[in-house]
Amino acid sequence: MKYKVHLFGCSTGITRYVDVPDEDVPHLSQDELLDRIFCNGQNEHQPQRLPGVSYGDVIELHSINPQPLETSSYFFVTKNDFWALTPEQFERYSNLPLGFRKSLLNKDEILAFFNKQPLLEQMLADVVVDPPDLVPNDLGWYGVSTGNEGTIAYFKKESDAFRFRLDLINLKLNPLK
Length: 177
Known about the structure:
single chain, 2 domains, five-stranded antiparallel β-sheet, 6 helices, 8 strands, about 30% helix, about 20% strand, elongated
């Protein structure tokens, strides 16, 4: 069977297909199958003009696998393990620039990225600039509000409100250490 591996660890947009003998697949647990895909994805086993499967890549187990999946269909390759990703985490990771993906070097940074940071799309929907007719004041000012906190700041100029909105989103997506 062929399994799809997204080579995100060293490139962008390159997919490698790794063969695992059909007769082996039904007898392997999910962890053993991931190990086999990783091992068979090295160039000494399946020579290709592509990098071997490595840290930062994502192995995809979808309907090509006849066994029911125990957890997820996307697995992030770490230095000595595989972490299950949700489809949203996979989508988010796949859209990152290569330089940022390479900067995620340790487990804490990776877990913080996958588990704690909100998606940009969520932030854009959550933090909004309200026009003066929707803001509870008589001054005709613009308000910046969040879904759970209500209006958090007022601005006379619309451009200042949008600048504050973007700064707030940037701060939430890239917290200071």
